[in-house]
Structures are given as C-alpha cells and as structure tokens.
C-alpha cells in the first residue's frame, strides 16, 4: 500500500473514530483532531524516514515507510493502542522502557516449539516497537520474519488477552486488523459498518 492508498483509508478511520468517540469512556480528542477529522499528524519527509532507518540500522518495510510518508505517527490505532510512533520515536523494544514485555514472555508456553514455532521472548527481543501508549497492549514488527515484498511480520500483544503475540503478514495487515477490531467493538455509523 502506498501513501496515496493509506491516506483515504486513514481519513475514513479518523472520521468513523470521531463519530464513535465516547467522552465518558475515551480520552478527550485533541482540538486539531476534531477540526481536521484526522487522527494522524503531518506526513514525514523522505529525509525523516531515511534518518530513522539510519538510526535503527535497517530499511523499514514498505507499508510502514509509506504510512509514515502519509502521517508521521497516529492516534488511537484501535481501541487499545492510544499512540503509534512517528519516525523519531521508532525504537527497538529491547531499548525502550517497554522492554519488560520481553522478560514477561520469555518464559511463556504459547509457542509450540515442536511445531517449529519460535518462542515469543525471542521474537519480542528483536522487534521494533510501534506503539507508544496502550492499555497493556503493544504493536511490534519482526525484522527477521520478512516476506518476498520486504514486509516484516507484525504482532499485536495484550497482556490481558490470555494469548501470546498474534502474528500478521505486514504492518498494513496489523493496522487493518486494528481498524476491524474498532468496528467490532464500536460499530460506527458508516457505510463500512456492516462490511
């Protein structure tokens, strides 16, 4: 998905999120979110994306690069992730204050190693943290699990789910899942509600 495709999808998501915002349950919306009907921020510049890649030591996967060129960060990526990182905030999970996720999932038994599944702690230890704030939930990308398009596998993990990390084929698939979860939980009045 390129930035021209990201923009209409994210605009629709923003409009539906604002319509379903519940002031009694949700954090207040920023004034600019309401004014612009946009949960995102200004687009990152190509130089900002390149600088992030240099700092991280890796070329970012295509769907994340194009997302950042459409919006340099994101608010409310579903009902349990409150903020996604922009170019200057992307970091390896192991190097952040959220590194406790690695230890917490190093001794879990969700992975079936007999079936060739890798232990969760190993995946988390090398992952790129996407989410900055959440309800005991985190979104990640795995730079070792790369498909033929250069997309990194994405993961959604919530400590309260009772499950291990949920894998997605790409950052786009991870984001689309968060959008779908929002629809299932909030059922926004929109043409996409029943699809």
- The SS-based structural class is alpha+beta
Q: Order of strands side by side in the largest beta sheet?
A: 3-4-6-7-8
Q: For the record, give the distance between the C-alpha atoms at the N and C termini, rounded to a whole number.
A: 20 Å
Shape: globular
Q: How many DSSP-defined strands?
A: 8
Order of helices and strands: HHHHEEEHHEEEEEH
Backbone CA Rg? 17 Å
Main beta-sheet strand count, sense and barrel state? 5 strands, antiparallel
Poorly predicted runs: none
Sum up the structure in keywords.
195 residues; single chain; alpha+beta; 8 strands; 3-stranded antiparallel β-sheet; 7 helices
Describe the structure.
This protein has seven helices and eight strands; from the N terminus they run ααααβββααβββββα. It is an alpha+beta fold. A hairpin with a 5-residue loop joins strand 6 and strand 7 (152-158). Helix 1 packs across helix 4 (62-70). The radius of gyration is 17 Å and the shape is globular.
Question: What's the short story on this structure?
Answer:
With 195 residues, the chain is α+β, with helices and mostly antiparallel strands.
List the helices and strands and how they pair.
Elements: H1 3-20, H2 31-36, H3 46-56, H4 62-70, E1 74-75, E2 81-84, E3 91-92, H5 100-104, H6 120-126, E4 128-129, E5 131-134, E6 137-146, E7 152-158, E8 166-168, H7 171-186
Antiparallel strand pairs: 1-2, 2-5, 3-4, 4-6, 6-7, 7-8
Helix pairs in contact: 1-4
């Amino acid at each position: 998905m390129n930035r021209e495709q990201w923009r209409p999808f994210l605009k629709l998501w923003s409009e539906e999120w604002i319509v379903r915002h519940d002031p009694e349950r949700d954090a207040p919306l920023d004034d600019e979110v309401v004014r612009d009907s946009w949960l995102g921020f200004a687009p990152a510049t190509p130089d900002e994306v390149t600088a992030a890649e240099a700092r991280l030591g890796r070329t970012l996967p295509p769907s994340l690069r194009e997302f950042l060129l459409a919006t340099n960060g994101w608010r409310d990526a579903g009902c349990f992730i409150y903020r996604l990182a922009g170019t200057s905030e992307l970091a390896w999970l192991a190097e952040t204050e959220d590194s406790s996720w690695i230890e917490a999932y190093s001794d879990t038994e969700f992975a079936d190693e007999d079936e060739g599944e890798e232990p969760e702690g190993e995946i988390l230890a090398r992952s790129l943290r996407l989410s900055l704030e959440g309800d005991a939930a985190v979104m990640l990308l795995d730079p070792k699990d790369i498909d033929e398009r250069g997309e990194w596998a994405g993961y959604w993990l919530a400590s309260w789910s009772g499950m291990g990390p949920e894998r997605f084929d790409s950052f786009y698939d991870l984001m689309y899942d968060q959008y779908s979860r929002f629809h299932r939980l909030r059922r926004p009045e929109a043409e996409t509600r029943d699809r």
